[in-house]
Amino acid sequence: MTFPGMDTAMSRRLAPWGAVLSLIVGLTIAFAPSFADARAGGSTSSSGASSSSSMGSRGQRTFEQNGAAPITRSANPTPASPSASPMGAPAGAAAGAGGSFFQRHPFLTGLAGGFLGSMLFSSMGGFGHALGGLMTILLIGIGIWLVVMLVRSLWGRSTAPSGNMGGMGGPTPLPRSVGAAAAPAAEQHYRGHDTTVGEADLSAFQSVHAAVQEAWSRADLGALRRLMTPEMLGYFSEELTRNASGGVQNIVANVNLTKGEVTESWIEGDLQYATAYLGWSALDYVMRLGRQPSDPDYLASGDPRAPIQSEEMWTFVRRQGGSWLLSAIQQI
Questions:
Q1: Region of 50 on the Ramachandran plot (φ > 0 left; ψ -120 to 50 alpha; else beta)
Q2: Which residues of the chain register pLDDT less than 50?
Q3: Is 205 found in the same domain as 180?
Q4: 286: which strand partners?
Q5: Dihedral of alpha carbons 267, 331, 284, 251, sign
Q6: Backbone angles phi, psi at 167, to 5 degrees
Q7: Which run of H or of E encompasses 266?
Q8: Are the C-beta atoms of residues 93 and 178 closer than 8 Å to each other?
Q9: Is 14 part of a structural domain of the chain?
């Protein structure tokens, strides 16, 4: 049975909860991890990469600053930030597994957000029946419990014990991860052993560069497979598939390498890496498949008569005594 005024009275009693839950939902949305496209999109360059993307792997130096755009697509896991906090403690020690609490616990974030969202929108619609009111109160209780658990977990991570915080007054041993983070930088990150390459290697890099441009223009995955690592082949295949699906093909012709300079080379185990700055000019345009140059809609973008200048950092890898393969491209 529904008594007169029940809806109004219950709504008044729960009105403060609606405001609180609105605030919590807003904070949840504000601090939830945002996702950006893995590739920025835009026109495709002659190397097969998006004009604003850098991709591939450079071994232990994949995410190091080397004067080019940071690599955004890589099979290597993104390392924790090595920067130190104002108190001198490495940021990685405070971050734990890396990222915010919501990034480390996406399931809990989605679950709590779902409960809070359903409660918020339920409170907006009024309560027609006593059973509905009881169910809403139950959901509110569950939501509060979830929020409390989230806050307690977050608080526990931010107040990790150190120094004389032990129950018996003795020093509490530091976790192994914190001890590792406090180690000297040279012990934290292995970068391989610096080495040098000769003129023959630079000539090999230039040959791989020219062959990649030619195979890319022909959309020849078989040829690309012999020139690059499987990871890079996957990225190039993705771009070629994207182009084919859009009914276009990127043509790169008259490639003229204007500068080639090795910037670093190092050895990791039985693998040798080398990064080179490459500058070149080429005709770079996009045509529509199934069209002839005389057709008015043949050209999708670019100019087949005006060369453009390009510059990128290419990283190559080989096993000792083997052939060099393209393993990363970075925009400049």
A1: beta
A2: 2-4, 6-8, 10-11, 14-15, 19-51, 82-124, 126-131, 162-183, 185-186
A3: no
A4: 250, 301
A5: positive
A6: -65, -30
A7: strand 248-268
A8: yes
A9: yes
Termini Cα distance of the chain: 72
98-135 burial string, b = 16+ CB within 10 Å, else e?
Answer: eeebbebbeeebeebbebbeebbebbeeebeeeeebee
Domains contained in the chain, number: 2
Contact 45, 236 (CB under 8 A): no
Nearest in space to 255 (alpha carbons), one of 274, 279, 232, 239: 279
User: pLDDT, tens digit, for every residue of 229-265?
Assistant: 999 999 999 999 999 999 999 999 999 999 999 999 9
Give me the domain span that covers residue 265. Answer: 55-79+193-331
pTM over 0.85: no
Here the tokens at position 320 are: 């000792």
Q: What confidence score (pLDDT) does residue 80 get?
A: 66
Does one domain contain both 28 and 157?
yes
